[in-house]
Amino acid sequence: MKRYGLAVLAAILISGSLFGADTWKIKLEEAKANLDQKQYVEADQILSAILKDHSDQAEVNYYLGLTKAGEGQNEEAEKYLRAASQLSPEDLGIRTDLAVVLLNLTRPGEAKGELDQVIAKEPNNGRAYYLRGVCQIQMDDCNGAEPDLIKAKKLNPGYGAEISYYQGLCSARMGKAIEARKHFDQAIEMGPGTVWADRATQAGSRIPKKNPWFIGADLFYQYDSNIVPVSSEDSLPEEVGNMSDSRGVIWLVAGYRPLIRDQGELGVEYHFYNNWQFEEQDLNLQIHQGAANGFYNFNLGKMPARVWGQYMYQYAALGKSADYYSTNNRGNMAFFISESKTLVTELDYQYDNEIFYDPGEDDNDRDNNSHMVTLGQHSYVWNGRIDLSAFGRYKMVLAEGDNYDSNRWGGRVMARLLEYKKFSGWIFSDWDYRDYYNNSEDRVDRVFQTGMEVQYQVIKYLAVFVGASYSNYGSTLDNFEYDRKIGSAGVRVNY
Known about the structure:
The chain is of the alpha+beta class and 495 residues long. 34% of the residues lie in helices and 41% in strands.
């Protein structure tokens, strides 16, 4: 009995010593359980105590790194995860979690380096592709992120909601509003009740919806110092008695876009202009325009580009009874290419065929065809709020009567405030040299114009605006030398 008792005691002592040797492993399992329950403080205390005697254990460093990350201590988390990776360099899970911490520290380049190594060894690692896509988004490379996000969604559908959210961010950042909304809707559908659905809902609410129907109207008062462009009252037509006049004006635009895509749109529009002169009602002007237009976006090499085109028919009427005055058939083509986020080059061509009810006879027949080419450069500053632009243009007018044939060279500089604290507006200066090369009196005009407008958005669909312009016409013919000042104020409604 005595020998048996000693054997039992020895067994107990031996097993106890063995148990003591593995106590840290039992504690590690306890810490992992706390970590699973997001009880970071408890896990931290246990793991920090284990680390004092077992700093050479990759597993201890790894879980302490995850715990520090859970506590929001990403710098500390990086230290322990790097130690774990050095102790176990073949463990790709450690590298992947280290990349997450580096992303939290907004160091996407380093995170991508870790993930590149993971993908090189595990080419079907969906989580690594997803995280590498997020790295590229942080690096403002949505084109590079898109293939990784698409592949991650195929390899690991469980990340579908968050991947869709990031795809939506990329699409919105690239100006693809329709595509962005589609991705955000997918994130909401795939992750109901998750943080990704909430984020997608918030991000989607910031994307303006494109309504296929649109309508807008300007209603304003306008003062004009020279309602007939002549040099003095002595040069006015017989039926006109005043050089200056005021008028009420409506400018209406309505349209429908049957095709709306991120890559392009097609639409039809109707424009209506009417003014009512307060004194010289024989000079009331009414204009009807019908237009079909569209654009298409594409890449020219690595540079975003756009082609835009429009055909427009215009009918103009004059006087109190709105009698027929002229018609125009006008075609426009424009090409835009973006060399960078702040530089856009624009090339335009316009053809215009103009026919008058009373064009004059022989050499004074104003019916004409014209061709105009414009080249411009846009520079966007102040985070894209201001568009600074400069244009050069040439216009050739071929009239039925020689007196109106002309070559015109001109230029314009312009600054547009796109939007700042509900304000927007523009200011411009314009120069034009007009050589009427077949004119019987050797007519040459030099024209300078400048103008500005400021708009304030009162509520969502309603704005108020004021504007002013000044024109100076110089000519070799005295009758066509004059100044003109116009001031406007009114309201603008858009839906």
